[in-house]
Amino acid sequence: MPLKSRACIRRKRATDSVAIHCNDIIRGCFAKGGLFFSIFSLHDMTVQFPSKFFLAPMAEISTPALRRLISDFGDHAVYHSEMLSASALLSGGFHDETMTARYDFDRHLVYQIAGNDPAIMAEACRRLADRGPFGININMSCPVSRIVKKGWGAALLNDIQRAAAIVRACRAATGFPLSVKVRSGFENDDLKRMLECASMLCDEGIDYIILHPRCAKIYYSRTAKWQLVKELKQFVRIPVIGNGDIVSAESARQRMTETGCDGIMIGRGAVQTPWIFAACEEYFTHGKYDITVNIRDCFLAGIDYIERYLPVHLHKSRAHRFCMYFSKNVFHSHSLFTDVRNADCLAAIREIVASYFRRNPHEEIKRFAE
Ligand SMILES: Cc1cc2nc3c(=O)[nH]c(=O)nc-3n(C[C@H](O)[C@H](O)[C@H](O)COP(=O)(O)O)c2cc1C
Question: CA angle at residue 120 from 117 to 125, to 5 degrees?
Answer without folding.
Answer: 120
